[in-house]
Write a structure and sequence with these properties.
124 residues, mainly alpha, 0% strand, cell membrane, membrane, transmembrane, CPA3_antiporter_subunitC
Length: 124
């Protein structure tokens, strides 16, 4: 088991990071900390995809020196998914932070429990 874990340490680190982010998302009531937890989860998924797409002793799929054999190159799809995911993640993070700023301006707190109590008092 130890040798198998050592050869797959990237995947293990990705799962640990995902667990840290998920725990942070569930246990924190501060909105900024929840956003950080979601970003940690995103990063863990990107790390996992990058680890799964990597094949030892292969290079990026750019034809050089006339080598066209598929066995010489890695699969480019996980890399494309990671790049697309990073762009989407940045956009989602910006939207979450802007909504958090608006909530702070209205309720003067970032505590989600306090915001929900105030919403119930307002009747919304």
């Amino acid at each position: 088991m130890g040798a198998n874990l050592f050869s797959n340490y990237g995947e293990a680190v990705a799962m640990i990071l995902f667990g840290i982010g998920f725990g942070n998302l569930l246990l924190q009531s501060n909105l900024i900390k929840k956003i950080i937890g979601l970003n940690i989860m995103d990063t863990a998924i990107y790390l996992f995809l990058a680890e799964k797409g990597y094949i030892a002793d292969r290079v990026a799929p750019i034809v050089t020196n006339g080598v066209q054999s598929m066995e010489a190159y890695i699969n480019p799809i996980p890399s494309g998914l990671v790049l697309t995911g990073i762009v989407v993640s940045v956009s989602v993070s910006a939207l979450m932070l802007s909504i958090t700023i608006r909530l702070y301006q209205r309720y003067h707190t970032l505590d989600l429990d306090e915001i929900s109590i105030r919403l119930k008092k307002e009747g919304l």
